[in-house]
């Protein structure tokens, strides 16, 4: 195109007036003859399709969807965004300007400053990533400069002639910023975080913040959503969530408590808190798990795994003897043992860390992550079996015979047993989290509690095998006079761990089997009925629930037909099911009571004993409620044999309404009293 042509086009555009020769839109469906389009191009024949288009549109019903396979979903969403206030961040109302009218240079009253600071606390946190939004944010500002500026501001406020109430309100808010910045800065190092008390100091400031909030005045014009239209983001802007100031401070107080407890509380119990810790605290926990090339900033990954092995399967064992690392002769059996153990540690470290990191997510993601980690642990178990076989020839260990465990001789497979133990633990957690997250329908509770009982039984059998080898090793060392104070301590810890695990497993197995029998009886009595499922059946639901476990080699998957028989127990009557449920729940109650009597050292919950005991007591309450439910149903069933009518109504509570999120106990309401 020539420069003269460009100048001519530019001249016409400059003199163009949108109001010039404006005509109203043609009436819809008019029959006037339209002028033939006069487009000329080599090889192109222009055709006016207006009449054809109008005729086609008139044949459509109102609201009829016109679908074109060439018009993609991405393009359709793009079309919806334009001129829609909810989707189009650049949309302006009539008379609205793209810039705000707020004057940032005007002087603010003290109460307005207090109001703005308090309003900032009410806005939800945004995961602001600078490079994805093409915007910089305090890149060259050091935290020390910010702290100095805040200290200087406090000095200026103190020397001002403001009202004393306003002064105190401003100073406490500035102090809060200083303390919060220092807490976040020190949070990167677990050693400094353990020594500092910033989170507790922050919590102590909150009551004064609540009291002084009355001195503030809200300034709505100081906040605007128009900033979002300047961000290079493909996500539509979210509406601003209005949070009450008191609710925001309560949330901040909970964050301070969680952040203070994050390094002192066992991960699983910490993550089970309700409401769940905030994203920042969960990220902090994940950062602390393995930081500065050590676990929790204290011990190396090797020490951590070896201590865990010693406490579970290998107390005072040759495989964990550190002197093996000093042998440099390749033909020496100790050199080969050290090489095999290093191979196992390097393989197990990633799996163990992934399992712990999974618990730093929210509850939904924990369950989803565990469904993946059990496959990795299944492979780890297979690798560990091969290493165990290699080590058997080096340690010259013989098989053990224990008729209480098995009629056959049992070979020691300590490393694969360790991997198998934690794999089953994760499988149990997946099932239990399914109840907490309302994954299962009430009609499926009986089958899932039975499967939980099945997993716990497999882990119990494994613990008996491990106990057999540890007791034999202890007696052998005692006979040979090799028991030292250190080895005695390791054997004691391992045997105590097995004892606690046995009690815990007995409680889980008994309560799970009791609830399964109870729910099966309720299903037979038609007190629990499923909603219509036109697009699924029991077999399809079984495949969905067991999908995470089908790829696992052990425990073996149960065929659907056998599973149905095991859960429904057709050979037992309703009376027998209820009697079995009563006995199982009573056994579970005894086991949970035994757990509550353990000291923090005996239960291996030092630092988290309070949370652990609270969790056990919730399970104990679930046992008591289950006993009452079984007794009520049993009495009503006996009476129904005379009156032929069971005047009961069963309700399945939500997890948040239950005593424990993992133990959903049905409640029974007599129909005659239900008014």
From TrEMBL:
Entries under InterPro entries matching the protein:
NAA35-like_N, Naa35_N, TPR_NAA35
Q: Which family does it belong to?
A: Belongs to the MAK10 family.
* Domain NAA35-like N-terminal span(s) in chain numbering: 63-124
Listed GO CC annotations: NatC complex
Name the major location: cytoplasm
Where it sits in the cell: the answer is: Cytoplasm
Q: What is this protein called?
A: N-alpha-acetyltransferase 35, NatC auxiliary subunit
Coiled-coil residue windows: none
Q: Which organism encodes this protein?
A: Golovinomyces cichoracearum
Q: Per UniProt, what is one GO molecular function of this protein?
A: transferase activity
- The segment(s) forming the NAA35-like TPR repeats domain are 263-641
Q: Which UniProt keywords apply?
A: Cytoplasm, Transferase
